[in-house]
C-alpha cells in the first residue's frame, strides 16, 4: 500500500526511482526490525521470563523518575555517588574530600575554601576514604535536608546540603588520628557521631608502643550540628576518651533508647603486633578473645558534662577524660560477638543487632534489659580502666546462626524483619530479630559488605528494595583490567516469602562502604540560585556582578575582573594584564533558565570552574607566564557556545605597545547591512509569534517558564542599544561597523527565540491552558 502510493506520487526519472526503491527497502527492513516481538528479543538475547520480570521492575522509560535516591560513599575517590532506585542510574558524583573539576570543586576560590577546611597539619588531603553517609533526621526519619559523611583515613566529617548537593563544610578531628564509626545521626540530628578506630596517643603526640595500655586511647566524638546554620558547630562539639579498644561502627538509639548511642569495638585484647619483630601479627592477637565490647554511651548526659567544668580542652576541643566518664557513669561495656562490624538499632529502638565477623551468630540485645542493668548498677565486672561491664547473658535477647561472616544489618517495613549481610558466605539473610527465626537466604556476587534497605536505619523503614553492596565483582561485568568495579545488586524484598535479585550495577569510583536511600519526593533541590550567590556559604557574594556592571579594576599589582556569563558571551571578552600581576576573575552566571550552566577555563593557566544559574564564583592566579591565553566556556550551552570565548593577554614586563590596526574596517557593504536587517525583521516575526503564544497561556503558573521568559526578556532588552548603534553607523555610511552591530542585534534575537521556544515547548508538554482545553 505504502509502496504503491509512494511510487505513483513521486514517479519521475530512473535515478529518483532507484533512490526511492533504496529508501523503501531500507524502511521495509526497518519495519521488520522494529516489529521484532518480545519472544524474538528474548530468544536473540537469551533472556528468561524471570529476566523480563526483573527488567520490568527496574526499567525506567525515558523521562521517567526513580522512587528512591541513593547516596553511596565513594570510597577512596573522596566523593559521594548519587543514583536512582530502582533504575540504578547514576545521577551525580558529589565532590566532598577530593577536587571535582566538572563542578569546579577545589578550583574556584569559594570551593577551595571548603576543601582547605580539611587541611591537616598544613597539608592538603586531596583524597578521602569515604565510608558512611548519613541523612539528616527529624523524629527518627529522613527529612531530605543534609547529608553527612566521614573520611576514615584523615579523620574528618563533611556536610553536604541537599538543597544543591554541594559540600559546604569539612571538619577535622582535633584529638584522634583515624576514625571509622561515623557518620551516624540521632533522631533529630543534634549530633553526628564519629568513633576513633586505631588507638593512638591523644592529640597526635608521640608515645612509644610500650606505653600502649597507658597512653594510647580510643574515643568517640559527638559533632554538634546547628540546624539553623546548616553547619557543624565545633565549639559545641565534644569527645569522650575511651580505652584503646579500636572503637568501630556506631548507631544512635531511637524511641526508648534515644539519648544513648552504641559503639562496637574490636581488638579489645589491646594487642600490639609487629611480625617483623618476632611478635605474632595483629590479626592473631586481635582475635584471641571470644568477645569484644559494645560501648553504651549516655550522650545526652555526656553533652551536659561536656558543657560543665569537668571537661577539659585539647587543641581547643572539648574532651571528657576517661576518669570523668567513669565517675559520671557515661559509659558501660557489654561483651559482644568477636570482631563485630555493625551495630544496628531496631526501628522501635528496643533491640540492638550485632554481628561478629568471626562468630557465626548474630546477637540481639534487649534495650529493656540493658537499661534495667544500668539503672540497678548490675555490673558483672570492671575493665582494667574502671568501666563497668554488664553480664552479656542478662541483656541478650537472642543469638541466631545466620551463616558465615555476618557483618551489617538493615530493617524491613515488616515488623521484626531484618536483613544481615554474610561476607564469607556471599549471601543476604532475611530473618526475624524478635523470634530469632531465619526466613530466607539469597546468594549475591560477591562478598557483601554493607547492605541497605529504603529508609532501613530509620524509625520507619519503607521495605521494597534492598541493595547489596558487594566488595568483589569478579566475573559479573565485561573485564576492564585487573582493577574491577564494585557491584551493587538490587534485590526485590517486596515479596514476603522470597527475595529476588533484579539487577547488577557496576560502581566504578572507589570502594563504596555504606549507602543510604531516601524517598525521592522528600528531596527538594533548587534549580537556580538567587543571582550573585556564593554557593558554598549560601550568602550573597560581594563580587556579584550585574549585566552592564562588568569592569576590570587594578590596584597596584592586583587585578580584579568583575565579569558575567550569559549565552553566549563572557564579559569582558578581552583581559589585559602584565606579567607578575595577581589576577582574580569574579564571574556571575546571569542565567535563570534550568540547566544553563557555563564553565570557564583559561588555557595553560590551570584555571577552571563551573557556574550554575545565579552563581558567583572567583578564580585566582598569578600571571607569571607572559603570552596570549585563550579562555572559553566549557559547557556546550548554546548554538554559539564555541564563540563563548575571549583572550587573556599577559604582557611581558616592560613591553611597549606598538599601535596597529585590529581588523579590516571595510569588509561589509551596504548590501550586507540590508541583508542582515531583513534577517532581523524575519527573526523578530518568529519571536513575536512565540511571545504571542506564551502570553496567551497561563504561563505564570509555571515557575520554569517564568524564569525562561525573564531570561528572554533580558536578551531582548539588550537589542535597543545595539540597534541604535547599527542605525547610527549606517546613517554615517559606516556599513562595515553597522553590519556587525546589526549582527549582534540578531545574536540577541536568536538567543531570545531559543529561550522562547523552550518555554513554548515546556508549556505544550506540561499542559498549559489551551493544551488542556484541546485535550478535553
Ligand atoms: S565498613 Cu566497609 S563494609 Cu567502613 Cu561500614 Cu563494613
Ligand atoms: Cu556557555 Cu558554552
Topology of this structure?
Elements: H1 2-10, H2 14-34, H3 38-45, H4 49-58, E1 68-73, E2 79-85, E3 90-95, H5 109-117, E4 130-138, E5 141-151, E6 156-161, E7 166-172, E8 179-185, E9 191-196, E10 200-201, H6 212-215, E11 216-226, E12 231-232, E13 238-242, E14 247-252, E15 260-265, H7 282-285, E16 291-298, H8 299-307, E17 312-314, E18 317-320, H9 322-327, E19 331-337, E20 340-345, E21 351-356, E22 361-366, H10 367-375, E23 379-382, E24 388-390, H11 392-395, E25 396-401, E26 406-411, E27 417-422, E28 427-432, E29 437-443, E30 448-454, E31 463-470, E32 486-492, E33 500-507, E34 515-519, E35 533-534, E36 539-540, E37 551-555, E38 558-566, E39 569-571, E40 574-578, E41 582-589, E42 598-602, E43 607-611, E44 616-622, E45 627-632, E46 645-651, H12 670-695, H13 703-717, H14 719-731, H15 735-765, H16 769-775
Parallel strand pairs: 13-18, 38-41, 40-46
Antiparallel strand pairs: 1-2, 1-34, 2-3, 4-5, 5-6, 6-7, 8-9, 9-11, 10-11, 11-12, 11-13, 14-15, 15-16, 16-19, 17-18, 20-21, 21-22, 22-25, 23-24, 26-27, 27-28, 28-29, 30-31, 31-32, 32-33, 35-36, 37-38, 38-39, 41-44, 42-43, 42-45, 45-46
Helix pairs in contact: 12-15, 13-15, 14-15
The protein binds [4Cu:2S] cluster and dinuclear copper ion.
[4Cu:2S] cluster binds at residues 131-132, 180, 249, 341, 407-408, 449-450, 513-514.
Amino acid at each position: 500500500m505504502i509502496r504503491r502510493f509512494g511510487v505513483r506520487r513521486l514517479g519521475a526519472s530512473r535515478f529518483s526511482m532507484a533512490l526511492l526503491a533504496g529508501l523503501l527497502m531500507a524502511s521495509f527492513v526497518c519495519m521488520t526490525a522494529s516489529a521484532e516481538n518480545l519472544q524474538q528479543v528474548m530468544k536473540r538475547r537469551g533472556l528468561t521470563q524471570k529476566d523480563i520480570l526483573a527488567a520490568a521492575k527496574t526499567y525506567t522509560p525515558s523521562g521517567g523518575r526513580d522512587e528512591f535516591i541513593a547516596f553511596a560513599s565513594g570510597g577512596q575517590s573522596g566523593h559521594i555517588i548519587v543514583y536512582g532506585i530502582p533504575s540504578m542510574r547514576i545521577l551525580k558524583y558529589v565532590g566532598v574530600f577530593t577536587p571535582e573539576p566538572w563542578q569546579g570543586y577545589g578550583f574556584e576560590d569559594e570551593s577551595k575554601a571548603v576543601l582547605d577546611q580539611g587541611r591537616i597539619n598544613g597539608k592538603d588531603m586531596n583524597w578521602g576514604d569515604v565510608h558512611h553517609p548519613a541523612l539528616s533526621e527529624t523524629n527518627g526519619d529522613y527529612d531530605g535536608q543534609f547529608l553527612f559523611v566521614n573520611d576514615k583515613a584523615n579523620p574528618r566529617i563533611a556536610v553536604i546540603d541537599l538543597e544543591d548537593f554541594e559540600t559546604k563544610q569539612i571538619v577535622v578531628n582535633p584529638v584522634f588520628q583515624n576514625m571509622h564509626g561515623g557518620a551516624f545521626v540521632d533522631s533529630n540530628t543534634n549530633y553526628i557521631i564519629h568513633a576513633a578506630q586505631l588507638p593512638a596517643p591523644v592529640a597526635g603526640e608521640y608515645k612509644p608502643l610500650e606505653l600502649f595500655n597507658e597512653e594510647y586511647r580510643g574515643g568517640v566524638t559527638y559533632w554538634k550540628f546547628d540546624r539553623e546554620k546548616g553547619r557543624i558547630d565545633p565549639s559545641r562539639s565534644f569527645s569522650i576518651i575511651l580505652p584503646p579498644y579500636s572503637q568501630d561502627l556506631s548507631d544512635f538509639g531511637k524511641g526508648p533508647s534515644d539519648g544513648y548511642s552504641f559503639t562496637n569495638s574490636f581488638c579489645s585484647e589491646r594487642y600490639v603486633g609487629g611480625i617483623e619483630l618476632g611478635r605474632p601479627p595483629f590479626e592473631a592477637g586481635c582475635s584471641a578473645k571470644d568477645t569484644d565490647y559494645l560501648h553504651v554511651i549516655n550522650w545526652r548526659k555526656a553533652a551536659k558534662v561536656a558543657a560543665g567544668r569537668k571537661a577539659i580542652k585539647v587543641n581547643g576541643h572539648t574532651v571528657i577524660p576517661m576518669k570523668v566518664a567513669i565517675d559520671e557513669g557515661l559509659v558501660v561495656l557489654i561483651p559482644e560477638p568477636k570482631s563485630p562490624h555493625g551495630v544496628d538499632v531496631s526501628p522501635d529502638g528496643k533491640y540492638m543487632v550485632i554481628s561478629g565477623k568471626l562468630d557465626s551468630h548474630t546477637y540481639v540485645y534487649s534495650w529493656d534489659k540493658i537499661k534495667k542493668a544500668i539503672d540497678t548498677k548490675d555490673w558483672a565486672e570492671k575493665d582494667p580502666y574502671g568501666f563497668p561491664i554488664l553480664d552479656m547473658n542478662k541483656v541478650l535477647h537472642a543469638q541466631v546462626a545466620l551463616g558465615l561472616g555476618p557483618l551489617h544489618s538493615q530493617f524491613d517495613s515488616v515488623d521484626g524483619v531484618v536483613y544481615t549481610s554474610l561476607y564469607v558466605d556471599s549471601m543476604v539473610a532475611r530473618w526475624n530479630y524478635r523470634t530469632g527465626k531465619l526466613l530466607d537466604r539469597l546468594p549475591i556476587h560477591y562478598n557483601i559488605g554493607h547492605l541497605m534497605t529504603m529508609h532501613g536505619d530509620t524509625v520507619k523503614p519503607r521495605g521494597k528494595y534492598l541493595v547489596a553492596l558487594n566488595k568483589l565483582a569478579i566475573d559479573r561485568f565485561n573485564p576492564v583490567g585487573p582493577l574491577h568495579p564494585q557491584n551493587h545488586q538490587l534485590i526485590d524484598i517486596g515479596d514476603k516469602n522470597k527475595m529476588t535479585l533484579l539487577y547488577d550495577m557496576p560502581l566504578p569510583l572507589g570502594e563504596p562502604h555504606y549507602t543510604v536511600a531516601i524517598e525521592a519526593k522528600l528531596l527538594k533541590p533548587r534549580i537556580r540560585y538567587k543571582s550573585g550567590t556564593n554557593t558554598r556559604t549560601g550568602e550573597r557574594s560581594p563580587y556579584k556582578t550585574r549585566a552592564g556592571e562588568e569592569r576590570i579594576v587594578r590596584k597596584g599589582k592586583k587585578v580584579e575582573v568583575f565579569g558575567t556569563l550569559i549565552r553566549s558571551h563572557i564579559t569582558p571578552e578581552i583581559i589585559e594584564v602584565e606579567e607578575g600581576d595577581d589576577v582574580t576573575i569574579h564571574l556571575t552566571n546571569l542565567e535563570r533558565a534550568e540547566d544553563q550552566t557555563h564553565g570557564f577555563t583559561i588555557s595553560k593557566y590551570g584555571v577552571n570552574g563551573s557556574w550554575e544559574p545565579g552563581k558567583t564564583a572567583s578564580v585566582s592566579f598569578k600571571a607569571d607566564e607572559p603570552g596570549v591565553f585563550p579562555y572559553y566556556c566549557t559547557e556546550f550551552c548554546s548554538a554559539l557556545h564555541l564563540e563563548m570565548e575571549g583572550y587573556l593577554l599577559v604582557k611581558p614586563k616592560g613591553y611597549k605597545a606598538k599601535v596597529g590596526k585590529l581588523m579590516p574596517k571595510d569588509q561589509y557593504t551596504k548590501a550586507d547591512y540590508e541583508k542582515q536587517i531583513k534577517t532581523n525583521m524575519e527573526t523578530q516575526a518568529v519571536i513575536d509569534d512565540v511571545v504571542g503564544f506564551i502570553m496567551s497561556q497561563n504561563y505564570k503558573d509555571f515557575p520554569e517558564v517564568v524564569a525562561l521568559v525573564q531570561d528572554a526578556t533580558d536578551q531582548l532588552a539588550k537589542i535597543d542599544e545595539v540597534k541604535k548603534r547599527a542605525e547610527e553607523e549606517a546613517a554615517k555610511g559606516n556599513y562595515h561597523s553597522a553590519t556587525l552591530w546589526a549582527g549582534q542585534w540578531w545574536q540577541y534575537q536568536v538567543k531570545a527565540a531559543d529561550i522562547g521556544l523552550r518555554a513554548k515547548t515546556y508549556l505544550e508538554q506540561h499542559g498549559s491552558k489551551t493544551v488542556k482545553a484541546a485535550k478535553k
